[in-house]
Write a structure and sequence with these properties.
single chain, 7-stranded mixed β-sheet, 4-stranded mixed β-sheet, 436 residues, alpha/beta, Aspartate Aminotransferase, domain 1, Aspartate Aminotransferase, domain 2
C-alpha cells in the first residue's frame, strides 16, 4: 500500500476481544461485520492488533472525508492541548471558536454568497436535525414536517420520526408522529415527477396533509441507498416550500463537506435552503461536531432556549479550522474528487455489467453498486473484508455496496480497493454457481 503509515504505540499483546461480548451492549453493529480489534489508522488505512492493514472504504460512515489522523490537524490539536487550550466551554466565547467561525465564513459562506448564522447544537448530526425541526415549528407555529421515502436523519425521537428506515423506527411503541412521508425523486419510477405529487397534495385542502412547518430532504440519500435527487427536482421542492409557508431544510450531514462533489450537496441545483444541518466531517478529524446553519431572519431563538452541555467541541474547532484552510482555500480538492469519482464510476460500471440488473448509484465520492439483493451484497461485503477491504452496505434491504473512501485517498489505493471489490463480486458469483 502506498500511503505512509504513522508510527504509533501498539499493545504488547492482542486486546481481550472477549470483553466486548461480555460488557458492550448488543446494540453494537459495525463490529459484527468487521470482527477485528483495530489499533491505529493513517490516511485510508486501518491497522489491527496483528499489524494487518485494511483499505478503508467506510471512512467513519462519512465522518472521515480527509482520512484518518491527518498530520496537520493532529499537530494543531496536540499544540492546542499542550498549551492548555480550553477543552470544554459550553457556548462561551473562545479563541478556537472564533478561529473556526472566521475561517468558515471566509472559505465557505462568503465565496458562495451565503448569509447563514451558525448554531452549535449537541455533538452529533441527529442533534442538528432535532434543532432544525424545533426551530421550524417555533417559527411557523405548525407541527407537520414533510420528509421523504428512504430518508435517514438520525435516531432521536424527532429525527427518527423523519427517518424512513423501519429497522431504526422500531415500531409503534416509539410513538413517532408529526411527519408526513412523500416519495423521493425517482421513487415511483423515472416517468413520475414526485415533486408534482407533493405540490398537488399541499394545494388540496382535502388531501389530508397538514400545512408543513418544513420540508426536510437529503440531496443524496446516504443510508437510504445512494439515491441522488436531480437538480431540477430539488429546485421544484424549494419552489413548493416557499408559497406554502414551509422552511426548506437540507440535511447535509453525510453528503456535505465535499462528499457529493461540492462542499454543500445542494450547490449544483442553485437553491439556498432556509436551514442546513452539518456534522460528520465538519470537524475534519472524526471529532464530534454539529452545526445548524440558519438563514437570514430565521434565528429566532431566545437565549438558551435550545442548549446542551456539549454544544461546542473546542478540539473539533481546532481541527475543523485546519481542515478548511488545508482543503478549501482553493478548488484543488474538488478537482481531485471529480477525477476520483470518475475512477469509482468507471470501475463500478464494469463490475455491474457482470451482475443481472445491477446499477451504479450516487454522486461524487458517495457512489455504490446496487446489486438488487441484500443477501448478495452481504456476501460480497464479507469477501471484501476477507480481502482486507472495509466497506458497508446501504439501502432498504442493504442491497447497495457503498464506496465511501476518504476524499483524499490516492488514485492508486482507490483503484486497489475497487479491484478488491470487483474480485469479491467475482468470487461471490462463482461460489453461487454463476459464471463471472
Amino acid at each position: 500500500m502506498t500511503e505512509t503509515p504513522v508510527v504509533s504505540a501498539r499493545p504488547k499483546s492482542p486486546l481481550p476481544d472477549a470483553v466486548f461480548a461480555r460488557r458492550e451492549s448488543v446494540v453494537r453493529s459495525y463490529c459484527r461485520r468487521f470482527d477485528r480489534v483495530f489499533t491505529s489508522a493513517h490516511g485510508s488505512i486501518l491497522v489491527d492488533t496483528a499489524g494487518v492493514e485494511y483499505v478503508d472504504f467506510l471512512a467513519g460512515a462519512g465522518a472521515l472525508n480527509y482520512g484518518h489522523n491527518d498530520p496537520d490537524m493532529r499537530a494543531a490539536l496536540v499544540r492546542y492541548i499542550e498549551s492548555d487550550g480550553i477543552t470544554h466551554g459550553l457556548d462561551l466565547h473562545t479563541s478556537a471558536k472564533a478561529d473556526f467561525l472566521t475561517t468558515f465564513e471566509r472559505l465557505v459562506l462568503t465565496p458562495r454568497d451565503l448569509d447563514y448564522r451558525v448554531q452549535f447544537t449537541g455533538p452529533t448530526g441527529t442533534n442538528a436535525v432535532e434543532a432544525s425541526i424545533k426551530l421550524a415549528r417555533k417559527i411557523t407555529g405548525r407541527t407537520n414536517i414533510i420528509a421523504f421515502t428512504n430518508g435517514f436523519h438520525g435516531v432521536t425521537s424527532g429525527a427518527l420520526a423523519a427517518t424512513g428506515n423501519g429497522h431504526h423506527r422500531m415500531g409503534p411503541e416509539q410513538g413517532l408522529h408529526g411527519v408526513t412521508r412523500m416519495p423521493f425523486d425517482g421513487y415511483l419510477g423515472p416517468g413520475v415527477d414526485t415533486s408534482e405529487l407533493l405540490a398537488r397534495m399541499l394545494a388540496d385542502p382535502s388531501s389530508g396533509v397538514d400545512a408543513p412547518a418544513a420540508i426536510l430532504v437529503e440531496a443524496v440519500q446516504g443510508e437510504g441507498g445512494l439515491n441522488a435527487a436531480s437538480p431540477s427536482w430539488l429546485r421544484s421542492i424549494a419552489a413548493i416550500a416557499r408559497p406554502h409557508g414551509a422552511l426548506l431544510i437540507i440535511d447535509d450531514i453525510q453528503a456535505g463537506c465535499g462528499r457529493s462533489g461540492t462542499f454543500f450537496s445542494f450547490e449544483e441545483s442553485g437553491i439556498v435552503p432556509d436551514l442546513v444541518t452539518l456534522s460528520k466531517s465538519i470537524s475534519g478529524y472524526g471529532l464530534p461536531l454539529a452545526l445548524l446553519l440558519i438563514g437570514p431572519g430565521l434565528d429566532r431563538w431566545t437565549p438558551g432556549e435550545h442548549n446542551g452541555t456539549f454544544r461546542g467541541n473546542q478540539h473539533a474547532f481546532v481541527t475543523a479550522t485546519v481542515a478548511l484552510e488545508k482543503f478549501w482555500s482553493d478548488g484543488s480538492l474538488m478537482v481531485d474528487v471529480d477525477r476520483r469519482a470518475g475512477i469509482i464510476r468507471s470501475s463500478l460500471a464494469a463490475t455491474a455489467r457482470r451482475l443481472p440488473d445491477a446499477r451504479v448509484k450516487g454522486r461524487g465520492m458517495m457512489q455504490g453498486l446496487d446489486v438488487r439483493d441484500g443477501r448478495l451484497a452481504t456476501a460480497v461485503q464479507e469477501k471484501c473484508f476477507a480481502a482486507k477491504l472495509v466497506i458497508e452496505t446501504a439501502g432498504p434491504h442493504d442491497e447497495v455496496i457503498k464506496v465511501f473512501a476518504p476524499l483524499t485517498t490516492s488514485d492508486t489505493l482507490l483503484s486497489e480497493g475497487l479491484d478488491r471489490l470487483d474480485t469479491a463480486v467475482s468470487q461471490t458469483l462463482l461460489a453461487g454457481g454463476a459464471v463471472a
